[in-house]
Structure formats: C-alpha cells, structure tokens
Amino acid sequence: xxxxxxxxxxxxxxxxxxxxxxxxxxxxxxxxxxxxxxxxxxxxxxxxxxxxxxxxxxxxxxxxxxxxxxxxxxxxxxxxxxxxxxxxxxxxxxxxxxxxxxxxxxxxxxxxxxxxxxxxxxxxxxxxxxxxxxxxxxxxxxxxxxxxxxxxxxxxxxxxxxxxxxxxxxxxxxxxxxxxxxxxxxxxxxxxxxxxxxxxxxxxxxxxxxxxxxxxxxxxxxxxxxxxxxxxxxxxxxxxxxxxxxxxxxxxxxxxxxxxxxxxxxxxxxxxxxxxxxxxxxxxxxxxxxxxxxxxxxxxxxxxxxxxxxxxxxxxxxxxxxxxxxxxxxxxxxxxxxxxxxxxxxxxxxxxxxxxxxxxxxxxxxxxxxxxxxxxxxxxxxxxxxxxxxxxxxxxxxxxxxxxxxxxxxxxxxxxxxx
Length: 419
Ligand code: RAT
Ligand code: ZN
Fold this sequence. Notes:
Layout: H1 7-23, E1 26-28, H2 46-50, H3 53-59, H4 67-72, H5 75-88, H6 95-106, H7 116-124, H8 128-139, E2 141-145, H9 156-161, E3 169-174, H10 176-180, H11 182-191, H12 204-220, E4 222-229, H13 240-256, E5 260-264, E6 266-267, E7 280-281, H14 287-295, E8 301-303, H15 311-320, E9 324-326, H16 336-350, H17 366-391, H18 398-418
Helix pairs in contact: 1-17, 1-18, 3-5, 6-17, 8-17, 12-13, 15-16, 16-17
The structure holds D-arabinaric acid (RAT) and zinc ion (ZN).
C-alpha cells in the first residue's frame, strides 16, 4: 500500500498515536473489583492472580489432579500448582498466563528468575492503598466501575451499613438472579420488605420490584443496571424474566435515565466441577436485543456479546439503533487476535461511537495487563485507519487523535449515559 505520507512523517505520527493511546486515562466500565471499604472482597496480589478462574480452567488441561482434590487445596497450594503446571512445565503463552507476567514485569519484578516465593514476598510488603494507586497508574485507569449485587450476602451488608465512597470507583447494579431466578428471589424480596408475590396476579409485584430497583440504584449510585443472559434468551416471551424486564427493569431505567446493560451468550456451569471457571459460550439470537431497542426507544441499552460469531450482527444492530451502545471484548473474546478483529470491525462500521474495551478484572493487579495489552491492539488498528485517511487526503491532527481516543476510552460511554 503506497502512502501519501512520507516515511519521515509516518514514524512520528505512529509514535504519537501509540503515545496517545498508551497515556489517555480510561474509564474501566465493567470490572469485578471493589472499593477498599469492601475489605477482603477487593482481591489483589500474586496468589489471587494465579487462581484467577481463567487460569484455573487452563491448569486442568495440564495437571491430573481430580477436581475435588484441587478444591480442597489452600489458595497458596492452588497457586503453586497453577504456577508449576502453566508457567514452569510449559511456556506461559496463553493470554491469561502472559497477563500475569506483563503485570509482574510492569511492577519491576524479575519474572525471569521464576521465583514464586520472592514474588510473594514482594506482595506481602505492599500497602493496599499505594497498590491501588500504582495499579491504576500503570493501567492508566482513572475510574473503575464495580459490579454490585444486592443478592450477594457478603456485599449487601456493606452497602446497608453505609460507608464513605472512594471517588475512584463507581457502581453498577447487577441483577442476574432477579431476572433469571424469580422463584428464589421472590422470598428474599419479601423478607427485605417488598410486597411481592411468587406468581404475580396484579401490577403490585412489578411496582414493588421497581421500588427495590430504585432503592438499590440510589443506595449504590448506580451508573447502569446490568444482567448477563444465556444464549437462548428471548424477548418478548411469555416468561417471568421477560415480564420483569418489561414491567419493572425498563420502567425503572426510564424513570432514572439509567442504561440497561445486557451481556448475552454465557452458558453457566457447562462443567460445574470447575465452579466459577466452568461457564461456556453459545451463539445468541440477537433478535431479542433488536426487539428491545425497537420497542423501547425511550430506553438506553448497553451490550456486549460473548460469542465471536455474534459480533458482526451486534455492530449492525448498533448502526440501526442510536439507543444501543456496544462495549468491550468480553471474557473469551478478550484475547489479542479477537480484540484486533472486533475493534477493526467496530471502527469500520461505527466510527468512534462505541467503547472498545472493559477489563472485567477480578483481581486489581489485572487492570495493568488487560489495559496494556488492549491499548497495544487498539493503537495498531487506529494507526492503520488514520494512515488510510491520510492517503485519502485527510491527515489527522494530534488534537483529533486525542479527541477520538478520549471518546473510545469512556467519553462516548459517558455521553451515551447522560443522553
Ligand atoms: O469474565 C469473567 O470474569 C466472568 O466470570 C464473568 O464475571 C463475566 O464477566 C460476567 O460479568 O458475568
Ligand atoms: Zn464480568
């Protein structure tokens, strides 16, 4: 491909794009991290990095320990086993393995020594607050959005007691059980003082669910309401799930202006023996998302989809509905080859009106590698697109690159949420 930009021009421009993408602060809009008031719910450190469920799943492919024996080990023993089977006995070239090394390397640790005890020692001397600051600096993350579930028995009491919020963290109201498991949730809501029926015979139950959502959105200052869904989820449908969405969640979101985030495509517990690591992926019929966007133009929808094969259709849907904002390369798609493909496709179909990535970090330290790896891919794709514009006689200025990257790293998302 012949460029109208001279070699001399291209090199500094490429360096500029890389530098801007590497240094623009990002709003990490979906994580499983917690602010410090949640104490031990905020995971960090080497053992947590090693027992990350992505690595647990990979480790079972390399060691022969039976499931129950693995789960009976202490966290340190599990971490030792994972370190040996995935890092020492084989090269750690999977994305989740490489991520641990990127993170340790960024902290200045000598990973080449393969010395787990001295790495543990380094972490043992860290103070949490400096560690949070340093992880956020290394990742270039300005704000972390948590995933907050009123149905989590460890998390709920912290919110109920109340605490001084940490301004680096925002909250998102996660409601999977409410939408997917009404028979189990109804007695809980009743116990918490909401006048709901197991088999709703009037609108009363839905208005009480709305009251529950309003109370929790206010309590946690939710930025959006969120659910993950199985691939076969349908809307509209003659199901309690669809009724709760239509008669409680969407009216609540309209009242408050909050987006409703959908994450379809996860098959929970494909292998229950792997516990948290046992979920799989399936192709979603995105007609349900199309129906939601079309039937509820006053609602705002955020979406990320798990199956690679759904990504093109999702982009096309976003072109059709301005009340849909797509985000992130979720979970099994958060690997460099697919991030590259998805980011390219999204830019080609949507320009900069989407959010290319979220970290989904469960361990604080992971934001370092998740963002460093993604930034590299995003920079490469953007540079290629800008060079093509240059060839068409539309050279892009530094200020324009900065504007675009700000949009991609949270600006477009925040505008969508406020719209
Ligand atoms: O990516 C993950 O860590 C998954 O376990 C899920 O938490 C997923 O991201 C989700 O939000 O359901
Ligand atoms: Zn997640």
